[in-house]
Amino acid sequence: MNELQTVVDKIDHETLGKSPNGCRATFVKLNDSVGIKLYEDEEQRDYCLERQSLAEEYDLGPDTFGIMNIPERAKVDCRFGYLTECVPVVWDILPRDDAGELYWLIPSNVEVEGWDGTYQSFETCKAVNELYQKLAEIGIHLCDVHDENVGIKNGRFVCIDFGELY
Ligand SMILES: Nc1ncnc2c1ncn2[C@@H]1O[C@H](COP(=O)(O)OP(=O)(O)OP(=O)(O)O)[C@@H](O)[C@H]1O
Ligand SMILES: [Mg+2]
């Protein structure tokens, strides 16, 4: 963990600017398998960590490895973080042509149980809906179902975005 903290200590505005982000979280990859999710709000961080940890128990989310923060002296906006397993995100694995247009088919080497690999049907795909149904059954109700919020782990879809506290 100390080695990871050394990497996290070096995260600056430039790194954050280049990293994937959404309305609340910024994700910085720390090595091949582990990344950190960073939030401006400590309570929002705790909320997501708690929900992802519960999902992890049911194989519905990536593994979590506890809290880690960027030191205050770095003076970055989002410094409250938790360590998470890094998984391929559906949006990121979509092939694009030279103009950046998406192809409608996922590469054939990516196999996910219950998915025919057709991008067009992603949000209505049975396996995606089953994932969110199972999350709801354990008390994690989410409505933000899209290709940037779903990853792939062991040939199954997992949720990577655990919603908002406020
Ligand atoms: N475990 C992970 N493995 C790999 N990439 C991840 C992981 N978690 C998040 N990411 C990347 O970081 C992005 C932002 O994370 P997340 O979706 O949790 O943020 P958010 O602010 O809650 O998003 P939204 O705008 O959808 O509400 C994701 O779309 C994805 O690209
Ligand atoms: Mg998101």
Give a verbal description of the structure.
This protein is α+β, with helices and mostly antiparallel strands and 166 residues long. It has one domain. Helices cover 28% and strands 18% of the residues. The chain is built from 5 helices and 6 strands; from the N terminus they run ααββαββααββ. The protein has helices spanning 2-9, 13-18, 42-57, 90-93, 126-137; strands at residues 26-29, 34-39, 64-69, 80-85, 150-153, 156-159. The strands form 2 sheets. It has a 4-stranded antiparallel sheet, with helices on both faces. Strands 5-6 form a two-stranded antiparallel ribbon. The protein is globular. The two termini are 31 Å apart. The mean pLDDT is 94. The structure holds adenosine-5'-triphosphate (ATP) and magnesium ion. Magnesium ion (MG) binds at residues 22, 148-149, 161.
